[in-house]
Amino acid sequence: MSVIDVWAQITTERMANRPWLKTLMRWTGREDAILESTDSTLKAMDAAGVDIALLSAWTGPEGELISNEEVAQQIEAAPTRFRGLASVDLYQPMTGVRDIRRWVDGKRFVGVRLVPWLWDLPPNDRRYYPIYAACVEAGVPFCTQIGHTGPLKRSETGRLIPYLEDVLLDFPELVVVAGHVGFPWLDELVTLSVKFPNFHVDTSAYALHRLPPAFVEWMKGIGRSRVMFGTNWPMLSPQKCLAGLSALGLPEAQSEAFLSGNARRVFAL
């Protein structure tokens, strides 16, 4: 059964040295600088049977932590195994629109990712709106983070209602893939997935055996066509994340949709 990891990144020294990333180590149990290469990423993917990983660029108020150019180089190293998610500067929305038009072709770069807690701006802030329009224009998903924040940053920006709900109401054509499960606001996750057919969620930042029971119940029911596998590599390895798959008790068709089918459809892979 094929596997697609929809949330991964190959960290740079610029990103690894950020104080907020160091606080994340308490969650992962890692004490090193979490610096990986394309080779070590491919080895980790092979060890877990992951066919494709979506590698994310990261941009924040402090600048490019992983640039679109660097992600493009990572894709070039293994073009059949990697796809990219571009990132943009929210403080320069029109530059962001031009960057999406430059990089996001739907083939190598298959979406855009912005992490609200990094900007301390909820997703209904006006500065995101040109980016959403550009994603709709390009026909690609907008990827973001929901739920509490592991680093020592405010979690409020990851709350689904009203922030993400406003976006889904204002942009009914926008496909949203929200990472990191959404705990503790799982009732809001259920509500949005009933209300908005373009709303999807991935399991990144969670080993599968640690998924909240309410989330597992959702992914077996309403979420069966909306949930995707993700790791948040290199914070968590694919092998560690997948170890609890059998304990979820998913039927074969649901396992296939979760591990790769939903991602292939949503990202047009």
How would you concisely characterize the structure shown here?
This protein is α/β, with parallel strands linked by helices and 269 residues long. 41% of the residues lie in helices and 15% in strands.
Explain what you see.
The protein is an alpha/beta fold. It has a single domain, classed as TIM Barrel (Alpha-Beta Barrel). Helices cover 41% and strands 15% of the residues. The radius of gyration is 17 Å and the shape is globular. The two termini are 16 Å apart. The model has no long low-confidence stretch (mean pLDDT 95).
Defining key terms:
alpha/beta; single chain; two-stranded antiparallel ribbon; 269 residues; globular; 10 strands
What number of structural domains do the residues give? 1
- CATH architecture identity: Alpha-Beta Barrel
CATH homologous superfamily? Metal-dependent hydrolases
Please summarize the sheet with the most strands: 8 strands, parallel
pLDDT averaged over residues = 95
CATH class: Alpha Beta
- Using only C-alpha atoms, the radius of gyration works out to 17 Å
Spans of at least 5 consecutive residues whose pLDDT stays below 50 are none
Described by the principal axes of the CA atoms, the overall outline is globular
- What helical percentage do the residues reach? 40-55%
Task: State the secondary-structure class.
Answer: alpha/beta
| CATH structural fold name | TIM Barrel
Per DSSP, the total helix count is: 12
